[in-house]
Write a structure and sequence with these properties.
With about 525 residues, the protein is of the alpha/beta class. It contains 22 helices and twelve strands. Helices cover about 65% and strands about 15% of the residues.
Length: about 525
Amino acid sequence: MYKILLADDEGIVLDSLKFIIKQNFGDNCQIEAVKSGRAVIEQVHQFAPDIAIMDIQMPGINGVEAMKEIRTFNKKLVFIVISAYDKFSFAQEAINLGAMDYITKPFTKERITEAIENAMSLIAQERKKRSNDLLVWEKLQTVIPVIENGLINLILFQEDFSTEMERYRSLLEITANYGNIMTLEFGEGSKDGSIQNTIGTSVKLQTSAPLMQEITKEFFPQAIVGSIMANKMAIFLPCQTKVMEYEERTRTVDRARNMTAKLCKKLELRFRCGIGATWEFLRLHKSYEESKKALRVGHGAVVHIQDLGLGCEYASDYPSDLEEKLFYYVKEGNVPQTQESANRFFDWMVDSYGNHEKDIQTKVLEFVMTAEKEVFLQGGMQYSFLYRQNYLTDVLSCTSYAELRRWFLKKLTEASRNITVKNQEKNITMIGKAKEYIQQRYSKDISLEEVAKHVDISSYYFSKLFKEEEGMNFIDYVTSLRIKKAKQMLKSNNISVKEVCVEAGYTDPNYFSRIFKRIVGCTPTEYREGIKG
């Protein structure tokens, strides 16, 4: 259904337009007619038309002035302007105001019908786009909680940060480098204020998760909300600075208190909230542990770990960022950065614990064993703690800090290099398997997703890995292979160019010819003739 507003000070013109519209579009149109510019403006407010067919010259407010006013509050109305004046200046002004068409009087039935059909087509496209946008928005409302839960799981369970964390941050448009974890705990209240029947309420609240997310984001719009696990829900609050000032912490606690109060009222259960300290992304699991500790130790509906004086695991000058980077570089197999970070960390240990040799030895041993364990994990093997005795002997045999530093760097460098080798072995085997599969199926309709599934990794990671190993993306590799095979087949006179096209994996000979010419520099036919010549 389309709403059409007609505006002309001549009754016979309005009658003609109504007749043409009813004859050609029937019940698909609802029509209103007015005779002045002022009435046009009023009817646009009241009738909300999709199309306005209006004369330029009307008494009082003319058509152009009416269009200017309407455009201040309605940007989507489609104007078709009619006029007895065939002047470029009128047409130009109408077009500048967004008129779709300019028709001079006397008009024909065909000309009016064509203009209305074009307007309806434009409106139909806009409606379809709006419908698609709403569908996408609706799907996003379903998908975003899943993505948010994935990020929370990544934080809590320490998955592979290097390949996934940045993608999650991009998808959720997170620009902050720090944050807190807030943990909601819920159950039935008891007389002494404790939480009871946690299993029963966990089952009951599974269907209320969307409402809990909605209420959480009402008080913390930037929050990333996880799923219900047992009788808890983890929430990530992004933060731009590493240190949360007292005033900001107080505001966070106040908002959390209001949030838990609303949750209690809406869901008729008891809620408590624990908030961990601010940590960088790679150490947010620390904030999660602190939020749970706050719930265990503190009292009241909302407890912040810093209000309990329990949030400082390290001394104030402990280089936790450097420690995290060191482990990260070892796991990435980045030898130069591993060595540089290890040297810096060893310098800090000597400066801080120079008079406590055993403390340095203990920390060195802890680092090396953790790195060695990572090598075993990368190789799919179980780590044996028999290494502990061997390494302890090595550490205790060092007679100076310089000697201990050399051993420390040697072991971490070995671990980093071993991880690089193991990753390369995995990648080479995986890409080799993929290339073998492509060789077998290049003549068929083959996709990156299909090959990624064959080697059992995600298409996103496979695409990245393939380009790193081969120096070209998947599509370019398949195209190169197909053209190579086509050149081999074109050397034979027993197969036609059309057959070569099909055997090379193309269904459209013209497209095959264009691709071949772009890569080889001539068409398949010219290539064959060149060989013969």
